[in-house]
């Protein structure tokens, strides 16, 4: 398999206002530092790391919403120019347009692609069915439960057929049952469509359950600490894979890796907050 | 001010509440009773000499006066004159305020530069400018409509500016990630997201338009409800004066009702668009 | 829209339609002139009702209307503040039947000018006839400027004037016309003085045009003044009942949703001179007064800037008498 | 209307923004320049004959007039009269509106019964009632203060009612679970939770109090800024009239500023109390 | 050990407005049905069940916020009269009073208990330290992260020393890392204070990790389906207990029990929603 995405020694530095100082000082702040890895075509990569380590920043860079301070990001061997419909982003909060119905939201990206109305509706219906929400076409976001909203957001990203799907903790705000259902559904969709997926999460269980490979990041400034090839392959989706010993073992490995990082980052935050 | 209504209505159960199915009818009945009691007091108080009957005639006499004006067609003429002025001033304020607000909100520099000037104008009581408008624009329709525009413009303008500036960043990022350009972003995201807040401004302007117009019509007009009131007062036609006041109250109610209906329609995608 | 007619010879009117403000429930002399046919072929175009004299002449000055009318003192003030206006004919005043009285309650301690100090006088407009007459009265009775300042003027809507007096919200009420008759019917009030007591019969207010309008429309203005003068003479010389009936007819025909009640209280025109001819004294009094009180600088304005009688058809006749 | 401001301010970065430390000073400078330009136009337009100098005198002459009034002490007297009336009417409206609103909001029956009556009054333009107030209460201070009360009462009353009715049910349950009785619940939960919404009403009333007062002072007053404007207009002291208008604008600005400051203090526990 | 809490055949029926019917019909709705179990003094019971099965209703009954339709609930052998300070509730959403600081919130229950100011502050400080938030005394809720808010809510419930702690999915809205930290902390506090705790959760992991016994409920109308004695006893809090085979086994047992219930309840909901 060829590389779909390549991070070449990417760093991102923010200049932020220093709110502690009266004199409106500016501070440099390294969010991610020398990130270097690649993702293969059709791969499902999960990315875990402590809060604030730069996971979302990494995704923004990939989405073309911000530019790296140094280094380069390549997609299909070409550097990223800006946002584009070849990559679909699912944001942590369901970023649905509240004034559009479920259908309208799914069609949104298609409109930007200038696909004719009729075809648009057809495609949208297809993806609505794919995420199991046929019959909810005309609901507004506020009339949908959290899980449904996130499924619409996923359908929207799938609808304009991006090669790469970037997902930033999409299931974080959901309750456990819905989350597990959606995880299973996502795997089904991935198997059906063979997209390249980068999936950010806080949850170790989630990372192990979903990822072919799992990238563990260090705390701030974030770099890739380790890449783990996930030993669990048999994906019988209706089985309680999470209760198998293999799962427990993979989970434990990542737990250990993350533990030091989380402790480190929490100590850092507590120091900052009481200051 | 992007106001998202997050709260829950607390209906503290009254002791011994009546079965629900009659509730609606009961409510109407009770409210009618309250109204009747008020009208009865209005009827009786002057007749019993509690207030001076000359200056506060009983309701029946006011109703008679109202009927007289209505039958003669005078009331209709005055009403029409007022509502036309109010609507044209209000409409022009909308036509000016919204586009201007969108532009100012969109360009941070414009907002920065104009902010103090707008604040100053907003806090200038419109009626203080009535003499100026008369001096500059004369006593005809122009000055009356101009003062209505002035009074209506600032709530609309400032709400529009705020609406644009407070569009959820997440939605903007989301739209950008789908490859929308600046123009499309404006039409497809900024504009629809701003509508509810803009409408708050429009509703505020609605009542301002009537308030100010009444005052303007009291000075130098030949028709309109404000003129009716001041004219009847000067001519000791006190019941007719009250009839004019009642008509203005009704006009206010109708305008408010219309605006609330439109608002509900336009923001049906919002959780609680409260009136 | 004004219709311009070319030429400046006699009978060729530069403007045929004249915009003006009326008065609620009353008939003004140009309207009477139109009714009597004196004004033809000129026409009056009603654009609304005036709220006060000062507002009326201000509207004339800014071109909202073609002519306006106000108390002579107000006219002087506006001309002094830079608006080029000229009075052409007098249109109201006081005589023994038509006058403005300064009334107090029967048991009020106010007996003469000195008693006004520290009291509140209610009237329906400021800066006009009522205020100037009051100040002139106080001045004539030896009050200093300082003392005059201590008399407070309160603007009261006409309908409330009597009520305010009876409720002790004001100490003195200026009442004229219908308001006075109605209040006197109820009784319990007495007059301290009136403008008629002070000046005798005199004309107090005039119609004005802008100088520019007069320059551009000499024939129109001349016709207007002629017609108005004749209407005034008609009202001065016709029996009261007949005048009232004519006024009633006009009010009913013009259909401005008015009552004809006020008009029943008409007693006389109050205009002192034939055809509204303006006497120097009628402006001089106020000019002196404004100069003394410091509101105008001495010799800032001369009488010639203020008025002209040359369009008045009775000028020749009256000049001879003088 | 319990308005919770949930939105994020989008500061769209202007190209070539200047280093931050100068930002504040720069802003002030730019705003001053805008003001100066406006004043310059005001000065020049009449002098060039673009507008009639008699009725629209250049700024310098207005400033002179303002200074004359200020030095003679007249302006102070008028200002004082207006602010006293405005504050007493406004204050009384607060004293009546808040307790009444709390009671009405607390008892659903009261709210149900009175709602249509309140709606009717709220939509009755206060100035339409000016003649009634004068007829009933005379031309003295009473009627002027009464009309200010009327204009200020309804925004405060209706906001208070809404505030009480929209207190978060969760907070009420939480307090009840800690054994609070009705009285304590009212003082410790309902009241503090309602303050921000009530204050929105108070701020709306603030500008209403000035607007209506100006109109009231134009009729039947012997001092006050409204009287000053109409008096100077009648006496053709046009610069002094503009001086009065400017003073009213300043009064409005000051009152608004004061209210916003108090509001900020009282709702410092809120995320974004926006002015 | 004696029974602290006894549910004796408790059912709860709601009468709800039938929004489908036009005629404002009323519908009876059984939320929980014949619930019968008891909790020992000092026990830690976790309660799992599908969404909408009546878990919160059960807790409300226990808290005295609603009354059972039939059956009886005893605490220390006596029937519940209403809310009381012998039971502390931690609600799913952090029900902190936004206008009170962290300290003020913790003191709230103590005020109701009429404990003098000085003592109150002392107690509050103690519990603030217990949840690891010393130094955050004067923060307002909006200045705290989600995890911190929930810790304050727990401290508040602990502060007035209730015998029983009722917790309704307290960690549901938190991110995974914070949740695990708080779970560990809760166990520490429980071991220290020996309170009786009923803990509602959606998460199987959480139920297994925390509970001495685990009650599994059926879907609507809810009853207790099974009580499971949790085999995991060794509580070395710094060990990754979640990755042990014992944990996986217990997890699996509950997963199987819940699976049929969840499927049943989801089918029910989907039917309802598309209706
Ligand atoms: N636009 C920005 N300006 C300044 N600092 C930023 C900006 N965006 C992010 N940061 C900072 O960069 C760091 C990394 O942020 P990021 O959102 O990528 O973290 P994360 O790993 O996604 O955290 P979480 O798991 O909490 O979502 C944080 O400390 C954040 O405060
Ligand atoms: N006050 C009420 N009036 C009417 N129905 C209610 C009321 N409270 C709860 N219900 C209904 O009772 C059922 C049980 O609700 P409850 O909140 O106890 O469920 P739950 O198990 O806590 O669900 P979740 O896990 O989603 O929080 C739900 O269907 C709910 O709609
Ligand atoms: Mg993130
Ligand atoms: Mg629940």
Any overview of this molecule?
The complex is a heteropentamer, with 2 copies of chain A (275 residues), 2 copies of chain B (275 residues) and 1 copy of chain C (322 residues). With 275 residues, chain A is an alpha/beta fold. Chain A has a single domain (3-86, 162-274), classed as Rossmann fold. In chain A, 37% of the residues lie in helices and 25% in strands. In chain A, the strands form 2 sheets. Chain A has a 6-stranded mixed beta sheet, sandwiched between helices. In chain A, α2 (102-112) crosses α3 and α6 (204-210) packs across α7 (245-274). The longest helix of chain A has 30 residues, at 245-274. With 275 residues, chain B is mainly α. Chain B has a domain at 78-267: MetI-like fold (Orthogonal Bundle), CATH 1.10.3720.10. In chain B, 75% of the residues lie in helices and 1% in strands. Chain B contains 10 helices and 1 strand, in the order βαααααααααα. In chain B, α3 (74-106) runs antiparallel to α4 and α9 (225-234) runs antiparallel to α10 (238-266). Chain B starts with a strand and ends in a 9-residue tail after the last helix. Chain C is built from 14 helices and 10 strands. Chain C is 41% helix and 19% strand. Chains in contact: A-B, A-D, A-E, B-C, B-D, B-E, C-D, D-E. At the B-D interface, β1, α1, α4, α5 and α7 of B face β1, α1, α4, α5 and α7 of D. Bound molecules: adenosine-5'-triphosphate (ATP) (2 copies) and magnesium ion (2 copies). One adenosine-5'-triphosphate (ATP) is lined by residues 14, 16, 29, 31, 49, 51-57, 202, 220 of chain A. One adenosine-5'-triphosphate (ATP) binds at residues 14, 16, 29, 31, 49, 51-57, 202, 220 of chain A.
